[in-house]
């Protein structure tokens, strides 16, 4: 795995050369460059197993060669040529015909025992459709050659982008190719000749066919090496992975543009299974099955279901309970003083984010759990550290651009998969995503453009994931803000989100979201795969996969109501609370198929590049889990995954359901009426986790505390005979499901290349104002022209998204309701970096050991030229082990290694004296202006004449 040492001059030239081509560029540089930062990747000279998962088994979905499944390890002993294409990609479509021609030619000359060609198919369509494309393109590019691709290339339905992320780590361009020799070493890795062309036809046949000679020049020497190597057959081959037997007939291996049907037989229906519930009043389900030949054209249904009822009541004693409540319980208040809390989740690694000292406060990372509460009222996250211990404390944080990245947030969810097996550099363990219930109206100051969606953050404090006001890594003595790692914009008015604990994708950044806007008529379920997060400081959203499940219709309910969502890790089911329909639904996380691109029906998206998948999926497995619930909101799974806890917001109760039978087992009464999100902390050995939940009206976090252990558990409603029947059907019927519509079929449409030229009319990252940003650097100097814009009206032409993209966190047009300066402060934007506040100072020791007063950007100030204003709260960040005290009239305020906050009230003495380390002599003095500042209706302080003179003197010392 290579790393690069690049000079600033070279890097700048590189970025300029890439700008305007596409978001990933067409440079063969490896490792690839993402906004000036080399990204770990597999490069020439590397052994594949140094970065890629070489044991991962891939199924071949098209190509009639001998290999029907393979791992990279199983290919040792032969040359392997991998291609990275996107279906619908104009450049990729042109080159795919060349690649197919070369692959078939080498197959006919050397056979599959010496060389294989494999292509990663992703972004939409089926293998048959993609095969039809490369077959027809190959024939048209090489008329009269007699070579028609059938055996080669082998296609893999790379739906989770695993081959791409292992071999072609973005932003390595596309189309691209990697050639592994017989030992598993990457000998060649390069970008195809059509990269950067705007359309299928703009890359001419001659340009595309230059790939033929390039591949030939690379492969011939490697084949000679193979002939002379006389290597032994690899000892690590799995006979179940590399199958030398010819495959059976498969309609997918036909011409690809025809539907091939094979007549078959349909068996008789079995008897109805036992009812799924053995007792109680909750209805159960029965099923029956029949054998249906796999390729039968009639699409006969192999499974039928019907409702059933248990014939016996459950014998639960009056003392029956669940482990989480005990025989009796108390609803305990954990934290108060929150601001419209909507959801709560637990940090998987307590103390990782705050460490032992932050913002001038001591924390104890080794004591207690850490709860994160999202506040919809002030657009922040409250972190409750050392939960339940004597050192419990709460600190609040938000994003500097909260009005876009963290506005009216309703849900958050952590990636808690600690042992995913992913490469550490790519694992997103400890990341979290937040859901924004807002159509992107900038706190009501701008007409909505619906350019909104979930925001992804990395909770690790390194790599500028937390920053100060200037965007620099936050020092322990100063205020800290979240800096987002990625954001996608396909889910405006999002009211629920949950992380998917799957382990197939390379980065683990898959989240499911409740998009309340949906198709503007009804909400929809959306799956977000951030894939490779762009990281702090970048705006490249060209690498992601977003899938809309349009058949999963969702109703949001009243504004501000959180919609709980959980993913069952072993059943692979997504549970969704639907507050507006008083029900809970279950969706198969791995079900459904690509139907078509979403770009035509849903024109709001994050990138126009083909590497950004925005698609509609259909025929997903779904069923109603429970209904008749009075406004279901928060949900949480028990530690063992057997029980689902549901907040019934309308009644103030928490309902406990059994997962397997969907039966109501128990009801917890809270006495509250606005319950939102719920969560269990990580389980501890030998103990049952307590359930935590938030309540919006009381602005509090609560927990259910068992007073005594539960000795008489509620009886399970599951009928054991039904479980036996399900296990038998699962073993005998491929893809057996009780929630699938077996009559549903998808006829996928390969995306037309024109969809990738579409823009979404003056919103977000596709703004047509050239002063916003360039494609690659995101820091176009022309964005400075936005500083003087005053057309801040609700329906003005100024796009507020352009301000953020242009490097503005402080601007007259941006919302002022929650200015991140302390009371009375005025912010000054520092483009691309952040902003400063005129009421923030730093005190530190300079290189000579003397005490130095600094302004907000770290420049030294002369105290005699610096004055304070009445009624303004000043923040003096005391750096290092200095004890600083401010003497104001009869009051003394002190701080060490942290913030000193004070306000000079009207009528007090006109000089504030500062002392250091308890010494009597003052270190410096600051005069107070004789005129009071005026308050404006917006809460921003306007200075009088004296104040303006002070600002002028300070401005002379600001050097950005």
TrEMBL record:
<feature type="region of interest" description="Disordered">
    <location>
        <begin position="231"/>
        <end position="255"/>
    </location>
</feature>
<feature type="signal peptide">
    <location>
        <begin position="1"/>
        <end position="23"/>
    </location>
</feature>
<dbReference type="InterPro" id="IPR015943">
    <property type="entry name" value="WD40/YVTN_repeat-like_dom_sf"/>
</dbReference>
<keyword id="KW-0732">Signal</keyword>
<dbReference type="InterPro" id="IPR000884">
    <property type="entry name" value="TSP1_rpt"/>
</dbReference>
<protein>
    <submittedName>
        <fullName>Uncharacterized protein</fullName>
    </submittedName>
</protein>
<dbReference type="Pfam" id="PF00090">
    <property type="entry name" value="TSP_1"/>
</dbReference>
<dbReference type="InterPro" id="IPR036383">
    <property type="entry name" value="TSP1_rpt_sf"/>
</dbReference>
């Amino acid at each position: 795995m290579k790393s690069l040492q690049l000079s600033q001059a070279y890097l700048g030239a590189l970025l300029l050369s890439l700008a305007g081509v596409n978001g990933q560029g067409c440079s063969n540089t490896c490792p690839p460059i993402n906004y000036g930062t080399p990204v770990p990747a597999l490069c020439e000279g590397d052994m594949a197993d140094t970065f890629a998962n070489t044991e991962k088994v891939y199924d071949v979905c098209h190509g009639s060669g001998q290999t029907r499944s393979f791992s990279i390890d199983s290919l040792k002993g032969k040359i392997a040529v991998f291609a990275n294409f996107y279906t619908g990609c104009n450049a990729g479509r042109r080159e795919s015909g060349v690649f197919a021609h070369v692959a078939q030619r080498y197959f006919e000359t050397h056979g599959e025992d010496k060389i294989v060609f494999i292509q990663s198919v992703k972004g939409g369509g089926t293998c048959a459709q993609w095969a039809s494309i490369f077959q027809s393109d190959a024939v048209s590019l090489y008329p009269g050659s007699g070579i028609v691709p059938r055996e080669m290339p082998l296609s893999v339905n790379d739906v989770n982008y695993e081959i791409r992320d292992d071999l072609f780590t973005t932003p390595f361009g596309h189309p691209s190719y990697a050639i592994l020799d017989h030992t598993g070493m990457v000998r060649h890795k390069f970008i195809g000749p059509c990269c950067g062309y705007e359309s299928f036809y703009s890359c001419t046949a001659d340009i595309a066919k230059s790939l033929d000679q390039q591949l030939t020049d690379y492969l011939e020497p490697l084949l000679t090496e193979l002939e002379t190597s006389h290597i032994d057959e690899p000892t690590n081959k799995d006979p179940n992975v590399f199958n030398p037997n010819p495959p059976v007939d498969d309609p997918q291996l036909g011409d690809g543009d025809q539907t091939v049907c094979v007549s078959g037989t349909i068996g008789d229906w079995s008897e109805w299974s036992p009812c799924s519930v053995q007792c109680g009043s909750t209805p159960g389900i029965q099923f029956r099955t029949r054998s249906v030949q796999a390729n039968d054209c009639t699409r006969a249904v192999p499974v039928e279901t019907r409702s059933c009822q248990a014939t016996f009541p459950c014998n639960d004693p009056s003392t029956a309970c669940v482990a989480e409540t005990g025989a009796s319980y108390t609803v305990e208040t954990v934290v108060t003083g929150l601001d419209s809390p909507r959801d709560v989740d637990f940090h998987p690694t307590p103390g990782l984010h705050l460490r032992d000292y932050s913002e001038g406060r001591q924390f104890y990372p080794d004591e207690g759990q850490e709860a994160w509460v999202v506040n919809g009222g002030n657009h922040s996250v409250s972190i409750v550290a050392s939960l339940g211990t004597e050192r419990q404390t709460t600190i609040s944080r938000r994003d500097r651009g909260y009005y876009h990245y963290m506005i009216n947030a309703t849900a958050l969810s952590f990636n808690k998969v600690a042992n995913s097996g992913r490469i550490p550099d790519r694992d997103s363990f400890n990341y979290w995503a937040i859901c924004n219930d807002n159509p992107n109206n900038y706190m009501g100051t701008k007409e909505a453009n619906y350019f909104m969606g979930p925001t992804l953050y990395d909770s690790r404090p390194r790599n500028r994931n937390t920053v100060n006001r200037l965007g620099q890594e936050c020092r322990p003595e100063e205020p800290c803000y979240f800096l987002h790692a990625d954001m996608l914009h396909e889910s405006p008015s999002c009211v629920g989100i949950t992380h998917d604990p799957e382990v197939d994708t390379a980065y683990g950044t898959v989240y499911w979201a409740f998009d309340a806007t949906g198709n503007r008529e009804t909400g929809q379920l959306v799956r977000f795969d951030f894939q490779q997060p762009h990281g702090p400081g970048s705006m490249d959203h060209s690498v992601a996969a977003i899938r809309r499940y349009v058949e999963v219709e969702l109703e949001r309910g009243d504004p501000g109501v959180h919609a709980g969502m959980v993913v069952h890790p072993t059943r692979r089911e997504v549970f969704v609370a639907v507050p507006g329909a008083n029900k809970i639904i279950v969706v198969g996380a791995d079900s459904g198929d690509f139907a078509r691109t979403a770009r035509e029906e849903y024109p709001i998206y994050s990138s126009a590049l083909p590497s950004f998948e925005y698609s509609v999926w259909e025929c997903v497995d779904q069923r109603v889990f429970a209904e008749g619930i009075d406004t279901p909101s928060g949900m949480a799974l028990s530690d063992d995954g057997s029980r689902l806890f549901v907040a019934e917001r309308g009644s103030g109760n928490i309902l406990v359901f059994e997962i397997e039978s969907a039966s109501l087992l128990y009801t917890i009464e809270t006495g509250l009426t606005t319950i939102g999100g719920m969560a269990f902390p990580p389980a501890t050995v030998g103990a049952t986790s307590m359930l935590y939940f938030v309540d919006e009206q009381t602005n509090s976090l609560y927990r259910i505390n068992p007073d005594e252990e539960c000795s008489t558990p509620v009886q399970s409603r599951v009928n054991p005979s039904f479980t036996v029947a399900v296990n038998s059907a699962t073993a005998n019927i491929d893809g057996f499901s009780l929630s699938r519509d077996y009559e549903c079929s998808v006829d996928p449409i390969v995306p037309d290349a024109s969809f990738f030229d579409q823009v979404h009319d003056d919103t977000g990252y596709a703004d047509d104002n050239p002063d916003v940003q360039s494609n690659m650097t995101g820091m176009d100097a022309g964005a400075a022209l936005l500083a003087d814009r005053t057309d801040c009206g609700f329906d003005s032409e100024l796009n507020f998204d352009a301000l953020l993209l242009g490097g503005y966190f402080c601007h007259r047009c941006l919302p002022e309701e929650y200015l991140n300066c302390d009371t009375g402060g005025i912010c000054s934007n520092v483009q691309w970096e952040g902003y400063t506040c005129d009421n923030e100072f730093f005190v530190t020791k300079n290189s000579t050991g003397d005490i130095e007063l600094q302004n907000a950007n770290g420049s030294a100030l002369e105290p005699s030229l610096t004055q304070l204003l009445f009624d303004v709260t000043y923040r003096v960040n005391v750096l290092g082990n200095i004890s600083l005290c401010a003497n104001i009239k009869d009051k003394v305020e002190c701080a060490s290694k942290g913030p000193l906050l004070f306000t000079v009230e009207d009528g007090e003495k006109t000089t504030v004296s500062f002392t250091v380390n308890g010494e009597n002599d003052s270190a410096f003095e600051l005069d107070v202006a004789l005129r009071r500042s005026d308050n404006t209706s917006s809460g921003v302080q306007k200075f009088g004449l004296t104040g303006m003179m002070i600002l002028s003197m300070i401005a002379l010392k600001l050097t950005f």
